[in-house]
Amino acid sequence: MSKVDLSVSIGSLKLRNPIMLASGTVGYGNEIAEFTDLNKIGAIVTKSLSLKPRKGNPPQRIVETPAGMLNAIGLANVGVEEFIKEKIPFLKKYDVPLICNIAASSVDEYVECTKILNVEETIKAFEINVSCPNVKDGGLQFGNNLSAVGNVTAKVRAATNKPLIIKLSPNVSYISEFAQVVKDEGGDAVSAINTLVGTSFNIFTKKPKLFNVNGGLSGAAIKPVALAKVLEISRKVNIPIIGIGGIMNWKDVVEFMIVGASAVQIGTLNFIDPASSEKIIKELENYCFVSGIQKISDLTASYII
Ligand SMILES: Cc1cc2nc3c(=O)[nH]c(=O)nc-3n(C[C@H](O)[C@H](O)[C@H](O)COP(=O)(O)O)c2cc1C
After folding, report:
1. C-alpha 289 – ligand 1 centre gap (Å)
2. Is the peptide bond before 193 cis (omega within 30 degrees of 0)?
3. CA 132 – CA 241 distance, rounded (Å)
4. In a designed cystine with 243, which of 34, 42, 264, 273 is the match (CB 3.0 to 4.6 A)?
5. Using H for helix, E for strand and C for coil, what is the string for 134-155?
């Protein structure tokens, strides 16, 4: 098979292929490394990190749904200091761009986390989570407020020269308005989408299945929503988009790229098949080869409407 160019760029961030592992679905990389060769992946995104360690919500934190899952983990994480001490050394062993996802309950905390992590050379970019539906402070309080997203983007932008990605919430009327604010305030890219707010009740006890009552819906069920959000941004705002939501195979990746994504993230699928990303990369190469596509980046926003 003659060589297909799978590399993509998201602003100044160059990736060997468009497949990234989504925040919260591969922890800090150590467990998934047993199943997938991290040296083959486009990039790995960490679980959301906060300034101090967070225990997250009490159980039950996960509920399976007919075509995906609801989670209300509540941003459990080791905190930035422990991440630097205990987790980065493992990730340094691999030749894979490391993107740190940050979640916080105040603008100052976002900035502080960014400053602490910014000095680490291994970290190639930041993804700012302004869209987690499962925490009381921060999360959607930021994610569905245009001026809050603008403010976080501007302040974090001032704290780092590394590529800055803002992860948008689908739980808004017009996601493109948020992408525009990110662009205006100096963000390099947006990732879309985080999970959709959902819930599930036990019909016998009449109680919510999740301790947090609401959770974030992910998996195959959300793909059409995610595609529509990516397309909306692509048609309205000139900013690189990382497509996320319900990707289950290589065809889904192609679909996301056609509607406007420069790269994608694999989330819930990692729980079903932790080796899927490597397979998807091979299948994408084959698809490009048989379709006569020399550069996969040509697929981005190639839709015909
Ligand atoms: C168990 C679980 C935990 C998650 N934790 C985070 C997180 O810490 N930060 C974040 O930005 N997104 C988090 N997400 C959202 C995913 O990164 C992704 O945006 C979402 O699941 C949609 O993609 P998918 O349908 O492929 O899973 C989490 C998702 C799941 C399923």
Report:
1. 31
2. yes
3. 18
4. 264
5. CCCCCCHHHHCCHHHHHHHHHH
Atom of ligand 1 nearest to the CA of 69: 31
Predicted confidence band at 59 (pLDDT cuts at 50, 70, 90)? very high
In which band, very low, low, confident or very high, does the pLDDT at 2 lie, cut at 50, 70 and 90?
low
Residue 36 in 3-state DSSP? coil
For the chain, what percent of residues have pLDDT higher than 90?
94
Which residues sit with their C-beta closer than 6 Å to ligand 1?
22-25, 47-48, 69, 71, 73, 75, 101, 129, 132, 167, 194-195, 218-219, 222, 244-247, 267-268
**Which of 54, 140, 218, 265 to mutate to test ligand 1, by most ligand atoms within 8 A of the CB atom?**
218
Identify which of 195, 197, 272 to mutate to test ligand 1's pocket (most ligand atoms within 8 A of the CB): 195
**What CATH number is given for 8-59+74-197+219-299 in this structure?**
3.20.20.70
- CB-based contacts of 261, cutoff 8 Å, min separation 6: 18, 230, 234, 241, 242, 243, 300
Which atom of ligand 1 lies at the shortest distance from residue 75's CA? 8
Q: How far apart are CA 150 and CA 46, in angstroms?
A: 23
pLDDT in tens, 244-288: 999 999 999 999 999 999 999 999 999 999 999 999 999 999 999
Question: Where in the chain are the domains?
Answer: 8-59+74-197+219-299
205: Cβ contacts below 8 Å, ≥ 6 apart? none
